[in-house]
Amino acid sequence: MLNYIIRRVGYAFVTLIFVAIIGFIIIELPPGSYLDFRLRELRTMGGDYSTDMIAALEQRYGVNDPVHVKFWKWFSNFVQGDFGWSFRYERSVSSLLGARIGFTLLVSISSLIFSWVVAILVGVYSATHRYTIPDYLITVFQFIGLAVPGFLLALVLMIFAQRTLGMEVGGLFSARYRDAPWSWPKFIDLLKHLWIPVVVIAASGTAWLSRVMRGNLLDVLNMQYVQTARSKGLKEEKVIWKHAVRNALHPLVMVFGMSFPAIISGQTVIAIVLNLPTIGPIFVNALLQQDMYLAVTFLMFQAMLLVVGNLVADIALAWLDPRIQFE
Amino acid sequence: MADVISVPVTAESDVREPTSDVGEMSQGKLIWLRFRRNRLAMGGLVTLILLYLAVGFAGFLAPNNYLQQNLEYIHGRPSPITFIGPECRFRLRPYTFGVTTELDQAAFKWVYVVDESVKLPIRFFVRGDTYSLFGFRTDLHLFGVDAPHRLYLWGADSLGRDVFARTLMGGQVSMTVGLVGVALTIFLGSVLGTMSGYFGGVIDDMMQRVVEIIQSFPTIPLWAALAAALPNISETFTMLHRYLLITVILSLVNWTGLARQLRAKVMSYRQADFTSAALVAGASNARIIFIHMLPNAASHIIVVSALSVPGMILGETALSFLGLGILPPMVSWGTLLRDTQQVATVVQHPWLIIPGAGVIIAVLAFSVLGDGLRDAVDPYSI
Q1: Does A152 sit within 8 Å of B323, measured CB to CB?
Q2: Is residue A305 part of a domain?
Q3: Which residues of chain B are within 8 Å of residue A30 when distances are taken between CB atoms?
Q4: Tens digit of each residue's pLDDT (9 = 90 or more) over A68-105
Q5: Is A155 on the interface with B (CB under 8 A)?
Q6: CB B378 within 8 A of CB B31
Q7: A-chain residues within 8 Å CB-CB of B221?
Q8: I need a labelling partner for B129 at 20 to 30 A (CA). Which of A17, A142, A247, B48 fits?
Q9: How far is CA A176 from CA A180, A273, B20, in A?
Q10: Cα separations in angstroms, B285 against B157, B208, B260
Q11: CB-based contact (8 Å) between A159 and chain B?
């Protein structure tokens, strides 16, 4: 088991190095980054200060070096926790990231938990009530959940929350708590705002996962051990939850690795509509304005979240299912 | 399905009834028969055909040109339509009303007042804005009102352009992005997946690592980063180039799923007797792959592709919504929905959200079609 975990972690690291190379090249690709813009600005300004500044910037980011040297300069600093400078915001990337990564994790993990809990409950219900009207209704909702683009759902929910519930929408806090220090009322305020992003981000994942759960459980319900459990007189709920659901969960853990990327990906767009303080909106802005060190760091962090998610899924599966061999 | 299941048995044993043509059915026909029974999937197919016809003839169906600005009807409401004629009697011909523009003295805003005294009959085959349809320039529209009035079925946008016309035109991009992207996905996925499964060894190992690395990027951020790397629109890099490269970007991630599934299929075919027989008979690798394996996997490829179209349509919509996909003046459903980024705009001008319905309908139709195909490709299952 330990061996298996070590090997998986090793794989994850190798993958991340490749991700870093590819990510850097993609972001480096377009000409005219914000850094070039700043350098040009400094050159036209002239003077000793500018000349020193240009030399320092060129040295730090390897402006005139070939790509591999540039990459190495960035990567070695990245590993040491120096992510570079955002020329657009005039702040270090790590300070921008630090302010947002916490909320990103909060929103992502809440959505993940929400989608799993709802998906399992809904999946079990529709599998045990197959071909009934609620099951058909659930199927309709599942299809719609998969078909509606996240940002559209976000818009509709926001309008609903604003008009019908009279809530202040957008962001994770009301205006008066936004810059306030943490306190109990601020936490309550956060919870009041959190549900819209969580529901929207989790929607398509929930639809898909509950579909998978329904299929798995239907397969398992035909197994002989379920029949045995019933024939020895166990209560139906015990048969379902103790015998069938447990075994139907394994394939679901296997797709965990796929549901996590969907959530990270989905929240990039949704965060813009909902004006969330997560890394999505700032990432898209960085891309549009070619603020490359900001963009590449955020891309790396999103990929890292994903690789770690996959790793957790693999290990959890090995833990849960003794039939998996660790060769 | 009992009659169909018995097909291979009658075909193999020589006691075929001379009058029955059941045994003659091809695999394709069996799939079609099974598919046709699935009413939901048939509905999806019909919806898609209608949608493609509508967006294909967009210029003819829409009463206005999608680029025609009308600064006197900015954010104008959808034209009201009535069946009550000028003599206040019911007529089968629908009428709309003339609109006059007035300045709201209090709010200093232009307001559009429906003038119920001016009744405009909606006529068939009217002449209006010019457009090009499959290369021909014409000004004939299926329906419309007499100039200088204009009919806005779904209202107007921030420059007074017809949302109905723009939604149809946007469909041309959004509904083909999926198809072109899928063609590329099929090509990349089947070539690389088959190679990986057939040759195994180092090739397979490398391919699997590549797939793993591509799949470790979250899709939308990766797409966004790639799209941001595209050059700006210029003389040498036209909008069409951008459109094509966006489809390439979308399929760059998408092929990995197909490749993985195909690899598993090909690996199982490698163990099959027909492959061994072909090898013994001296067939080349290329022959085995193209004559024996790919036709076997064809139905599988089609199903996986159909199910990947919705993801591409949603991907393009998300990218364009972020301003990283299709750029104006070219329109797609995503670029149209960019107008709805502010909640306040949607509350005031709810008709701007109509293009979103196009996305939902197209994605739903492709999903049920794909599901139906998946159930249908295996005619021998019960």
Answers
A1: no
A2: no
A3: 228-231
A4: 888 888 888 888 878 877 777 778 888 888 888 888 88
A5: yes
A6: no
A7: 264-265, 268, 283, 298-299, 302
A8: B48
A9: 7, 21, 80
A10: 58, 21, 20
A11: yes
**Domain ranges, residue A199:** 106-279
Q: For the beta carbon of residue A233, count every other beta carbon within 10 angstroms.
A: 7
Strand, coil or helix: A247: helix
A256-274 vs A279-288: helix axis angle to the nearest 10? 70
At residue B118, the 3 state secondary structure works out as strand
How confident is the model over B307-324, as a mean pLDDT? 88
Q: What is the pLDDT of residues B175-199, one digit of tens each?
A: 898 888 888 899 988 888 888 888 8
> Model confidence over A1-49: pLDDT tens digits?
788 888 888 888 888 888 888 888 888 777 767 777 777 777 777 777 7
pLDDT for residue B136 is more than 60: yes
**Angle at Cα B71 formed by Cα B70 and Cα B76, nearest 5°?**
75
* Domains observed in chain B: 70-161 (no CATH), 166-376 (1.10.3720.10)
The H or E element containing residue A313 is helix A292-320
pLDDT at residue number B29: 80
- Can you give the CATH number for the domain in which A194 is found? 1.10.3720.10
Q: How many CB atoms lie within 10 A of CB B125?
A: 10
* Residue in A with minimal Cα distance to B319: A269
Q: What is the pTM of this model?
A: 0.83
pLDDT at B4: 46
- DSSP letters for A164-205: TS----SSSS-GGGTTSPP-HHHHHHHHHHHHHHHHHHHHHH
Contact call for A19 and B216, based on CB within 8 A: yes
> Would residue A44 count as lying in a domain?
no
Closest alpha carbon to B166 in B129, B134, B119: B129
Q: Residue A124: pLDDT above 50?
A: yes
In a domain, A5, yes or no: no
Residue A254 placed within a domain? yes
The pLDDT of residue A326 is: 53
pLDDT on residue B311: 87
| pLDDT category of residue B51 using cuts at 50, 70 and 90 | very high
Listed as own residue / partner, the contacts of A133-140 with beta carbons closer than 8 Å and 24 or more positions apart are A138/A210
> So what's the ipTM on this one?
0.81
Chain A residues whose CB is inside 8 A of the B213 CB are 15, 18-19, 22
CB contact under 8 A, B343 and A146: no
* Chain B residues lying within 8 Å of A23, measured CB to CB: 217, 225
Cross-chain Cβ contact B367/A147 below 8 Å:
yes
- The domain tally of chain A equals 1
Percent over 70 (pLDDT), chain A: 95
